[in-house]
Amino acid sequence: MSPNIWNWRAIAGGAGALYVHVPFCVRKCAYCDFASWGMDSNDGRMRVYARALSRQAEELASAGLLEGCMTAYVGGGTPSMLGPEVLSGLLHTLRTVAPNMRELSCEANPDTLSDEVLVAMREAGTTRVSIGVQSLEDAELVELGRLHDAKTAAERVSAAVATGMDVSVDLMCATPQQSKETWGRTLLAACELGVGHVSVYPLQLEQGTPLGDRYAHDDPCWNEEEVQANRMEMAQSVLSAAGFARYEVASYARADKQCLHNTAYWTGIPYVGVGYGAASMLDRATYVQLRSVAPQLPALEGWVQRVRLSVERPWDRIACDHRLCSECFSVELLNAQESLAEDLMLGMRLSRGIGGALVAQAKEAFGNRFVRTIERLVADGLVSCENGSLVPTQLGWLLGNQIFGPLWSLSDNL
Ligand code: SF4
Fold first, then answer.
1. How far is the CA of 158 from the centre of ligand 1 (A)?
2. Number of helices and strands (H, E) in the chain?
3. Percentage of residues in the chain with pLDDT exceeding 90?
4. Residue pLDDT, tens place only, 133-164
5. Contact at 8 Å (CB) between 134 and 141?
6. How far, in Å, from the CA of 321 to the mean position of ligand 1?
7. Which of 23, 141, 169, 361 has the fewest CB atoms found within 10 Å of its own CB?
8. What's the pTM?
9. Is the CB of 79 under 6 A from ligand 1?
């Protein structure tokens, strides 16, 4: 991982990372509760929406928010569904508004990742494609309600690798029809496709989704906590043996193939999001910049150190030609203690853990409460001390909430 890429951001100011949300999918998957909707691929609203995203990115640039922007991530939903022409226009705009950008990622699903879309991505300066594969077993894909089969996924991933862009695949474990054997096969097959990055998640059964509702009154053995833990451990051993290093609880990469954009989320770098449901995390200075183009946002009182925002655009206005000044935002204000506790929690998602500088800051802010909390986490085998850093143990990876809860509690009124 290259922490120095953020040095330029520190000099230039503004947000270090830009997230752009495309909320359209060909069809909802059976487990999905993300901000996305099924949409006909010819629906003209997607073009209008993409134009509004480009315009909002230009507005952010005009406010100076993208001077130090090092990464951008077009996520969804299914950005590849926009098709080569519309997607290319959006990606070109992102390259133009953030000229110092080092990494431009775009999400895709195998069924809409045509050769034409891949060419459009590469020619527009995309450096990284993140593909929602989830499984390379047909029976599992059917249960998940995915549109692709294993053969199509493998073909499309190989085509993406052949373009020379960095390629990541998302894989899902503890799903219906999955066994240890099929999970092992999926992991090995993904490694053999030549990708540089793999993200691994246990399936979360969410109420209101077809899968969640189907099993609402059952306790499906294939999704039990123990199964999830075993599958995540299997992923670690298979992926490590294949040359991937785990750098975050769900993320594995070959040398120099970590996702820089995601590291911004975990290391307190301010990021700004545009599009339906997109989240931002801004410090005071970047919030003031955003407010210059979105004056409907509230002024900050002196105690606020960090602002979390998300765009609350009503779905029936998805295709309006939005300016930032007409977006609705939900706003969460964090004080200094909450911001620091959040940094500690996020740091514990990373294999390098919380570095010495952040540990010293936490000791000064929280005093003995921090020391006692860490002693307890160490005694419980969740955290270890390594050369002045605090690092999650193997058990800590598996029981993350038992680390995050006590760290967040540090921000309770002193
Ligand atoms: S492709 Fe992704 S965002 Fe779209 S419905 Fe499936 S899981 Fe949800």
1. 21
2. 16, 16
3. 90
4. 999 999 999 999 999 999 999 999 999 999 99
5. yes
6. 25
7. 361
8. 0.96
9. no
